[in-house]
Amino acid sequence: MAAELKLVRTPAEEALAERFPAIKASLPGGAQIVKLREAAFERFLKRGLPNRRVEEWKYTDLRALMREAAPFAPIPSDAEAARALGSARTFADLGAIQIAFVNGHHVPGSETVEGLEVVPLDAALAAGASVGPIEAAREDAAYGLNTAFMNDGVMIRVAPGAIVERPVHVRFVNTGGSAFATATRVLVEVGEGASLTLLESHEGLDSAACQLNDVVEIVAGDRARVRHVRLNAEGTQSLALSTLVAKLGAHVSFDTLNVVIGSRMARHQVYLTFAGEHANANINGATMLKDEQHADTTLVVDHAVPHCTSRELFKTVIDGDATGVFQGKIIVRPHAQKTDGRMMSAAVLLSDAGTMNNKPELEIFADDVQCAHGATCGTLDEDLLFYLMARGLPRAEAESLLVQAFLGEAIEAVEDEAVREALIGVVSAWLEARH
Amino acid sequence: MLEIKNLTVQIEDKKILDGLNLTVKKGEVAAIMGPNGSGKSTLSYVIAGKEDYVVLDGEILLDGENILELEPNERAARGLFLAFQYPLEIPGVATMTFLKAALNAQRKARGEAELSTPDFMRRVNAAAQQLHIEKDMLKRALNVGFSGGEKKRMEILQMALLQPRFCILDETDSGLDIDALRIVAEGVNALRSPDRSFLVITHYQRLLNHIVPDTVHVMANGRVVRSGGPELALELEKNGYADYRQQAA
Question: What total number of domains does chain B contain?
Fold first, then answer.
């Protein structure tokens, strides 16, 4: 107790502690949501921002990385929103159904198609939509802050049996000259036997040190099919916390890929739980870091029921003084027999000063399962480089070809060809900017 | 065309080439034979520009220019080609992507325009047909899952496509059965021209029945210890390398 009394709050912790009581009455949601917010805020008050002494955050000391708390951005005017969205190019030309956010605020006016419903967060919560499908995520600091402060968002609902052919693209565009914070929540409900391709893009200016915290919660009904791709192309000063929560029903087919090129500090968390048997999940990542960037991927994949398969493949390329973190945990519950889980994290260091921290974990409580994990970290193979150079490719081009091949393994699983090509374009542009 | 003078090379404190001299004229096919460990593969790597070797002395002149200071890709753009003894598998790199990147990189370095895709395809298909390379092979990742023979044919396909002026074949016959050897040799022979030279490195005389050399050089302990005509290869086949091992020791 004495230690807790002595806890010295950082300016950021102080600001957040003062902010919640001041704004909570203005945040969306009824009594049920208020209770969740208050519980999350109490946990924050007790623990503060996570630091390196907290095991799950040992490689990403949020307390040290976030000294000040930026204020929430005001709601942009229609003209500001239109200007920001007009200049954003990520995943353009895919013919997707667009849902837009500017500076963390939903811009109303999405296209509607049969079987797809898009409702603003406040309306969805007022109508009784539930949040937080996975208990374990509630203990997490970034998720908890989002729960306490979530001030805008949408609910995306796909009716049972509906096949949404075009991708649904949630665009997060951040603009403006000064630092601000966001706390967005996207609730996704995919009905039984329904199908959805969900794209998320996050882009912003390099000039402002924004503090972004977004949560996407996907609940997939039995036999649903969900394809999810997320791209962080945020500004180089931003601090981006993101959490994907996914609860999968029986016979669900679920793929997610997180691609990171942006942010000064990015932490992407995945909490995935198999809640129905015979479901299948591919959880992939492709991260490209340079300069002083720091990117953390933290997964908790919970095989709570038998007969499910998960594949986790994370590729990280590190240049300059950048730091990559991978923490992946697969849990197999006592009754989850016939679980098949394989997790791999591979990193390539393009510079001498880069760092990669790999921490794969398996917690297996069932005896008839197949689980494996692997982690590698190394430089590009000099023999392969020599072979390519001996055929005429300059070193930079040879390196690019090998890096593309390395990351390609995580990206090639994307089924939508146009999306896949767009991501390959992201990789090429990143590589070209190196030279 | 290629002049190697007093080449002395070491790797990890071990001297592999020790004052090697060799001249290959324009249009000449020169064979290098020698026992294991005589430095044949090192010679091919050093000419191509592999980093691991320390050149203590000597020079390698390609048409009068010392190429020792050039990067491997700069040597390639000047017309040097090494067909690897063990071609490398590169997962994730499509064979066609690689071929096009290599050809255009060389053309760019020489100030030539990039090839159009139809033009490129025509050249690849012509070379593939001659070397009995199935279209399916070209669709796969470079050398991944190729048999030994397929890898060697892919090396010759690259050579045919890149049209180098000086070709080094490093034990191209190793791991090949008779039929594959014939296909590879035909591919090489089709490229013989008065403007193109070859350095054919091999243990065995067998390859030289198919690719008949103009000159034969024997390497032992890091230098050329004897030179002659094609008859020298036959003599080696009969007597083995014992004499040279003793001479070197």
Answer: 1
- Residues in CB range of A416: below 8 A, 6 or more apart: A94, A167, A197, A227
Residue B247 — very low, low, confident or very high, per pLDDT cuts 50/70/90? low
Q: What is the pLDDT at residue B246?
A: 55
Please enumerate in sequence order all residues whose Cβ is within 8 A of that of B126, keeping only pairs 6 or more positions apart, or say none. Answer: none
Name the nearest CA neighbour of A373 among A289, A299, A272.
Answer: A299
Cβ-Cβ contacts under 8 Å, A424 against chain B: none
Q: Report the DSSP pairing between strands A294-303 and A323-332.
A: parallel
Comparing alpha-carbon positions, the chain A residue that sits nearest to B50 is A386
Whether residue A326 contacts residue A287, with contact meaning beta carbons closer than 8 Å, is answered with no
Residues of A whose CB is below 8 A from B50 = 386
Amino acid A1: pLDDT? 47
Domain ranges of chain A: 75-380, 381-435
Q: How does B124-150 read in b/e, with b if 16+ C-beta sit within 10 Å?
A: beebbebbbbeeebbeebbbeebeebb
Interface test with B, best of A384, A391, A404 (most B CBs within 10 A): A391
pLDDT tens by residue, A18-45: 999 999 999 999 999 999 999 999 999 9
Q: And the tokens for B68?
A: 């020792």
pLDDT tens, residue by residue, A318-375: 999 999 999 999 999 999 999 999 999 999 999 999 999 999 999 999 999 999 999 9
Report which DSSP code applies to B114.
P
Number of residues that make up chain B: 249
Closest-CA residue of chain A to B164? A391
CATH code: domain of residue B91: 3.40.50.300
How far apart CA A142 and CA A211 sit, in angstroms, is 11
What is the mean pLDDT of the segment spanning B127-143? 91
Q: Which chain B positions have a beta carbon within 8 Å of A394's beta carbon?
A: 71, 73, 105, 109
Quote the Cα angle for A353-A355-A361, to 5°: 170
A276 has pLDDT over 50: yes
Q: Which of B48, B50, B92 sits opposite A408 (nearest CB)?
A: B92
Residue of B nearest to A405 (CA): B92
